[in-house]
TrEMBL record:
InterPro entries: AcTrfase_RimI/Ard1, Acyl_CoA_acyltransferase, GNAT_dom, YpeA/RimI_acetyltransf. Keywords: Acyltransferase, Cytoplasm, Ribonucleoprotein, Ribosomal protein, Transferase. Acetylates the N-terminal alanine of ribosomal protein bS18. The gene is rimI. It is found in: Cytoplasm. Its main location: cytoplasm. This is [Ribosomal protein bS18]-alanine N-acetyltransferase. GO terms for cellular component: cytoplasm; ribosome. Its EC number is 2.3.1.266.
Length: 149
């Protein structure tokens, strides 16, 4: 994610969330040594989605992810989550965390398809009283998986 892409990112963010991140939130992720924001681009260069990943020591967390309305259902979210998993694995993370709105069945199904499991809940977390589901999955290199005791 680059500064010149923030306008398109903010348009998707505003259309996707009732309490969207601000430009300053995204700028912080771009500037942070722990932030790894990524965008997805169509063949014509149109920004179709984004994911903000934070990696500190051996823990990674997906902080924000969204796909533009007209690009949903095309596998872009799946590609972004796969990128986050691969990046986390390549950079030594042992676990990847995220939180998702309890009513977001599509996102929950996507995360479960990758192997994420519910690890907790934040009751009445969102403005509408909806719970946040905390999810996590172990992230390790294939060779480490094969040598686990």
């Amino acid at each position: 994610m680059r500064c010149d892409e923030l306008k398109a990112v903010l348009e998707i963010e505003s259309a996707s969330f009732s309490r969207p991140w601000t430009e300053q939130h995204f700028q912080y992720e771009i500037d942070s040594p722990f932030g790894h924001p990524m965008v997805a681009l169509a063949d014509n260069g149109t920004l179709t989605g984004y994911l903000c990943l934070k990696l500190v020591l051996d823990e990674a967390e997906i902080l924000d992810v969204a796909v533009g309305n007209s690009h949903r259902g095309k596998g872009i979210g799946r590609l972004l989550v796969q990128w986050a998993l691969d990046f986390s694995r390549e950079h030594g993370a042992s676990v990847l965390f995220l939180e998702v709105r309890a009513g977001n069945a599509e996102a929950i199904a996507l995360y479960r398809s990758f192997g994420f499991r519910e690890s907790g809940r934040r009751k009445n977390y969102y403005d509408n009283g909806e719970d946040a589901i905390l999810m996590e999955m172990p992230v390790c290199r294939q060779s480490e998986e094969n040598h686990a005791v």
